[in-house]
Design goal:
single chain, alpha/beta, globular
């Protein structure tokens, strides 16, 4: 591992998180405003590629790898160090009837022997889990071909989501670095990327960006299930209502920070 990038989490943290998902089959549902916004970012990032070779870093339980394999005829790879998370990612590919390669390996080990192999590199929450996001971005850059494109997203744990996270999952804040859009753009520029665009995304509301799993121990399995269903229903109903009112992406309520960049030729 890069000596400058110490993780804020360990495998046990992720195993506990994904354990609650292994008995549920999730689907990428466009009824969620956030998914529609993220799909638009993928469309922009992949506009210049046909049949791209791509990799998702931190791919555990990924719903986007099957989507990209189907919609962009992409050769898909995913990498994660959580064995359980990798099994879930492979399951999602199989359920979608598409092929992909899931690598259960540490990213920093993988980059030592694989360089400049991918047209597109993306992460849906990764760099914020390390003490040095800059060092992680340098590793990501090494995987990208010159002229390739990268999409980076992180949770927006500012605005309304900060007090929600303090109540729902205090550990969430301890395992994330808060990275505003301007900071993310600066980090990417320092890593040698050309930043195409950056900002907030995901629509006007996504309460499920916060992890509610700690409440399972307080209100029980079924109580936790009801809580998550209420959160998801709120995301759908209220999120689409606010989207219809054209509430813009912004710091207060949007769930994600993103940046699209390219690697100079």
């Amino acid at each position: 591992m890069n000596s400058n990038a110490s993780p804020l989490t360990d495998e046990s943290y992720w195993t506990t998180l994904w354990d609650g998902q292994q008995h549920r089959v999730r689907h990428l549902r466009r009824v969620y405003v956030a998914n529609r916004h993220l799909a638009q970012l993928f469309q922009l990032a992949l506009a210049n590629f046909k049949h791209p070779t791509l990799i998702e870093l931190g791919c555990a339980d990924s719903l986007w790898l099957p989507y990209l394999a189907k919609n962009y005829e992409a050769e898909c790879y995913g990498i994660d160090f959580s064995e359980l998370g990798c099994r879930l990612a492979q399951r999602n590919l199989a359920l979608a009837g598409v092929e992909g390669t899931i690598l259960c390996e540490d990213i920093f080990t993988y980059t030592q022997t694989h360089t400049a192999e991918f047209d597109f590199v993306y992460s849906m929450g990764l760099i914020e889990h390390f003490t040095s996001p800059q060092a992680v971005l340098a590793e990501m850059s090494s995987l990208l071909k010159p002229g390739g494109t990268m999409l980076t997203t992180t949770p927006n744990l500012r605005g309304m989501y900060t007090p929600i996270a303090r109540i729902a999952s205090p550990k969430l804040l301890a395992t994330h670095r808060v990275i505003p859009p301007t900071t993310l753009a600066e980090l990417l520029q320092n890593a040698g990327f050309h930043v195409i665009e950056f900002g907030y995304t995901g629509g006007p509301l996504k309460l499920s960006v916060v992890d509610y799993s700690p409440w399972r121990a307080v209100i029980g399995k079924w109580g936790h299930e009801v809580l998550c269903k209420c959160v998801n229903l709120t995301d759908i109903v209220v999120g689409n209502f606010l989207a219809a009112l054209r509430v813009p992406n912004q710091q207060l309520t949007s769930p994600y920070v993103y940046a699209i960049c390219s690697k100079p030729k």
